[in-house]
Amino acid sequence: MDKFVIExxxxxxxxxxxxxxxxxxxxxxxxxxxxxxxxxxGKSTLLRALNRLNDLADVTSISGRVLFNGQNVxxxxxxxISLRRKVGMVFARPIVLPMSIYENVVYGxxxxxERDRRKLDAAVERALRQAALWDEVYDRLFDQAAELSGGQxxxxxxxxxxxxxxxxxxxxxxxxxxxxxxxxxxxxTLQELKEEYTIVIAPHNTQQAVRVADDAAFFxxxxxxEFGPREKIFITPTDQRTLDYVQGRFG
Length: 251
Prior knowledge:
With 251 residues, the protein is α/β, with parallel strands linked by helices. The protein has helices at 43-50, 80-86, 101-111, 117-130, 134-137, 150-162, 180-193, 206-212, 230-235, 240-246; strands spanning 2-13, 18-28, 32-36, 59-68, 71-72, 87-90, 168-172, 198-202, 215-220, 223-229.
């Protein structure tokens, strides 16, 4: 089953840069789809198109369709707030709010109007367990989130997304600022989460792409060069440019 169907998506920024050029691909539900390639290839732009975060950038034109459960998210009439609850985003550097661990997790729920303390408590434990953080913080939920380590803060940001019970989790280089141990925890968590969620990630290097991918898409200068299952893309790619990049000949 496909969670997203992207059809002929092109996007231009105001400086004349064409960030995406006629991209078409399908993103499977309950799988980890990796977007990889050199910097500036369009990976982050595609991630942001999936939940309309590009609305916040200086985009001059966008065409094509991005179907989420059959609905075009580029439709101006779509409820963007509702979309972003269903399609959550975790960024490269953890952005914790200046409040407690508990309040960080329930931030989105409170904004949505939830006031029932039992429901909030249950959401906090569920989200922190899913983000593999509960055992480390259960006895200090009301300490300031800023006191956590970098890896813990990133998992807290993931928990904040999970508390909203989204359908899709987008991650833009989520471990680029983390040490190998914290990175391994995030990667292991993603493998568990895909049982319940669809995950799309732009990893910060090809090694991570190989480790976590079910499906992989290679982007180069705004073009989708090749897309398919992990084994095909990283072991027997069809396009020479994919092979050259995977083998470290450029990028």
